[in-house]
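If it is no trouble, can you show me the amino acids of a protein and the tokens describing how it folds?
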Amino acid sequence: GMAFDHEGEDADLLHNAGVAMWNMGRTDEAKGLFWRALERNPHDGRPHNNLGVIDLEAGSLEAALANFEVAKRLAPGDPGPALNVGVALLRLERDREAEATLRASAVKFPDNEAITQAADLASQLLVEAEAKVAEAEGAVASPGADGMGS
């Protein structure tokens, strides 16, 4: 009833205040407001996504990925977290996982150029990594060892 509506409104106000602080460069205050928004409404993906971006910018890649994954689960229709999960995986050099999740998201959000570009980047990185591995294996391959490195 009304009490629940009021809590939802509080969460929105807290989230919006957090965004305002973040835009002013007051990151710590923004984080505090995002966490308070989540206490009021744990099912809102937006504060998790924003916390993830703050983590990513701070170089806390594992924390960023965790926040993005929660945001993606809570807001499956939002392409932002879907892209950000892939970006965090790329930053973590988990290229194969990044490509798999970004390809799936590119199918789900066909009009989102950023997701498609990120998926293409992941594919390119994988091809380059595989070429380097093949080159390294070629350099150390001894006769009769062909096909062992699979």
In short: Residues 61 and 91 are 7 Å apart (CA to CA). Residues 113-140 form the longest helix (28 residues). The mean pLDDT is 90.
